[in-house]
Amino acid sequence: MKIEFDSTYPIHLNGIISQNEFQESINKINRTISSNKLLILLGIVFGACVIGGMICFIVGGITTANSRTFGFPALVGAGIGMTSLGSLIFGIGCCLIQSRRSTRMRQAIAEESKKYSSKSPTPCSWRLNVAGGLIGTGYAYNRHAQLIYHVSVTVQ
């Protein structure tokens, strides 16, 4: 899951920002948003909770069937709880990671905008445009909402 901005130099920036400066700036922005360490850690925790929950559920079911006792087995409840907790942690974690990534992206773009608003011969500003859209084709079950990010460079 690689998320980054395109570093292709736009023609309309000729005479405003050099091609090397533009690519350095886009690469700097991409480096600030490219870390997937937390997402990997979140996936590991989710996987461990689901696997642990399934093991508890299966072992609880087998021991209850073998013991011929009635009632709700504690291990089955623990398995359901672990699986639910893992799903909850994963959902909340994904939202927090997206929010944090968006904040870092905005900060990096603001720094680049500040750099070019005074440095370049023709002042320009950088900003982040966010648009929502439906991705996919066909019926509603094939589509999902996705945020689309664009870096805009405007001449002042």
Determine Rg (CA atoms, Å).
Answer: 24 Å
Fraction of residues in helix: 55-70%
Count of helical stretches: 3
**Broad structural category:** alpha+beta
- What portion of residues belong to β-strands? 15-25%
Main sheet properties: 2 strands, antiparallel
Unreliable segments (pLDDT under 50, ≥5 consecutive)?
none
| Main β-sheet, spatial strand arrangement | 1-2
Question: Order of helices and strands, N to C?
Answer: HHHEE
Shape: elongated
How widely separated are the two ends?
35 Å
- How many strand units? 2
Describe the protein.
The structure is a single chain. This protein has a domain at 16-115. The protein is 59% helix and 15% strand. The protein has helices at residues 19-33, 37-67, 74-119, and strands at 124-135, 144-155. The protein has a two-stranded antiparallel ribbon. A hairpin with an 8-residue loop joins strand 1 (124-135) and strand 2.
Write a concise keyword list for the protein shown above:
single chain; 156 residues; alpha+beta; two-stranded antiparallel ribbon; 3 helices; 2 strands; elongated
